[in-house]
Amino acid sequence: MRSMEITVLVNGRKRTAPTEARTLLSDFLRHTLRLTGTHVGCEQGACGSCTVLVDGEPVRSCLMLAVQADSSRLETVEGLAGNGELTDLQQAMLEEHGLQCGFCTPGLLMALHHAERTGLDAATTTHEVLDGHLCRCTGYGSIRAAIERHWRRVDVAE
Ligand code: FES
Ligand code: FES
Question: Ligand 2: which atom is nearest the Cα of residue 138?
């Protein structure tokens, strides 16, 4: 099987590793780089569990080959909490019980962080992010409450 070496900047750290041409980015992150926070559910782009940011944009990592990410800047859920401190958004998820089994949470958090960075309001974020992420525990009410709680705090701080 043809293998090549790729270099990516993951959560601010440069990583170089060999990968086969057919390896998915999700598998490269989980099995090669041991970043198992990125979850894999449907493997066909439907559930959103595997969402990571590639050069700042949300991407279903089960639909992208690792070799396509060569030289890219990747952000995964492991990069959110610096020094063990939860981000404000993670804190809001905790306070509103926005997760049950937590399987959908990493992908959801990455999409929410992207929405916040791009300046989306709470209503648009709820609509757009929840539209593209399946929660098998059906915890949508709590997730929605966490988004509203966090965006209220952001509005007050501004
Ligand atoms: S595992 Fe990638 S979208 Fe479901
Ligand atoms: S919290 Fe279980 S899948 Fe969403």
Answer: 4
H helices of 7-87, where? 25-27
pTM of the predicted model over 0.85 = yes
Ligand positioned closest to the Cα atom of 134 = 2
- Residue 62 above 80 pLDDT? yes
Of the listed ligands, the closest to the CA of 106 is 2
Report the chain's C-alpha Rg in angstroms: 16
Per-residue model confidence as pLDDT tens digits over 63-102 = 999 999 999 999 999 999 988 899 999 999 999 999 999 9
Residues in contact with ligand 2 by the CB-under-6-Å rule are 99-104, 135-137, 139
Domains in the chain: ranges and CATH: 3-79 (3.10.20.30), 82-157 (1.10.150.120)
Output the six-digit token pair for 47.
């559930």
Nearest partner of 155 among 107, 111, 121, judged by Cα: 121
